[in-house]
C-alpha cells in the first residue's frame, strides 16, 4: 500500500542514514585532527622564531633565513641535526625533540613563507666578477639552479645572510660541517678569498623571484 515502507527498504534507509552519519563524524574528526596538527606546527614554528625571526629576518647574522627555503633542504637539515651528521650547539638539542612528522611539517610550513629581503647591498663589481669565476670553476648553479634559487633538497642561496653563507662554506672547506661530502670537496677547491667573494655576491643577489 502507498505510504507503507516495507522492512527491507526501511533497513536500507536506516543503513544509508547511519553511513552518512558515520561519514560526517569521520570528517569532523579529521578536521579536528588537522586543526590540532596545524596549531602544533604553529606553536613549534613560534619557538623557531626566537632565533630565525618573527618575520623571517634572523636575529643574529650567523643564523640562516629559513622563510621561503626549499622544503626538502629544510627537512634534511633537521634530520641531520637530529642524527648528529650535522652539529650545532643550538639546533642539535632542538632537533632531538622532533619526530619525522614534525620535521616534515615544519619544513613545509616555513617553505611556504615569503623570502624576506634583508636589505643586503649588491656586491661590488670585483667581488661579483670573482664569484662568477668561482661558479664557472666549481659549477655552483649546477645544483643551486639559475639565480641561486635552489630546488628540492638544494637550498636557495640568493639573499641569504652573508655571514652565514661565508661561515657555512668555510665549515664545509675545513670539514667541521660534514653532512655533505660533495660540498666539502667543492669548497676545498675554492680559496678563502673566493668564498668571501661568493658570500658577498650571493647575499646581495636577491631577484624578482621572492
Structural summary, described in words:
With 210 residues, this protein is mostly helical. The protein has 2 domains: 12-111, Cytochrome Bc1 Complex, Chain D, domain 2 (Orthogonal Bundle); 125-203, Orthogonal Bundle (Cytochrome Bc1 Complex, Chain D, domain 2). 61% of the residues lie in helices and 0% in strands. The chain is built from 9 helices and no strands. It has helices at residues 7-52, 71-83, 91-96, 100-111, 125-138, 141-144, 162-174, 181-188, 192-203. Helix 2 (71-83) runs antiparallel to helix 4 (100-111). It is elongated, with a radius of gyration of 25 Å. Mean pLDDT is 88; it is low at 28-32.
Brief descriptors of the model:
210 residues; mainly alpha; Cytochrome Bc1 Complex, Chain D, domain 2; 2 domains; 9 helices; 61% helix; elongated
Going by CATH, what is the homologous superfamily of the largest domain? Cytochrome c-like domain
- Give a count of the beta strands, DSSP E runs of length 2 or more: 0
Q: Give the overall average pLDDT.
A: 88
The domain tally reads: 2
> Could you tell me the radius of gyration in angstroms?
25 Å
Assigned CATH architecture of the largest domain: Orthogonal Bundle
Report the CATH C-level class of the largest domain: Mainly Alpha
Terminal CA distance reads: 71 Å
Outline: elongated
| Structure annotation, total helices | 9
Largest sheet: none
Element order: H for helix, E for strand: HHHHHHHHH
The residue fraction in helices comes out at 55-70%
Low-confidence stretches: 28-32
Per DSSP, what share of the residues sits in E-state strands of 2 or more residues?
under 5%
Q: Structural class of the helices, strands and pairings?
A: mainly alpha
CATH fold annotation of the largest domain = Cytochrome Bc1 Complex, Chain D, domain 2
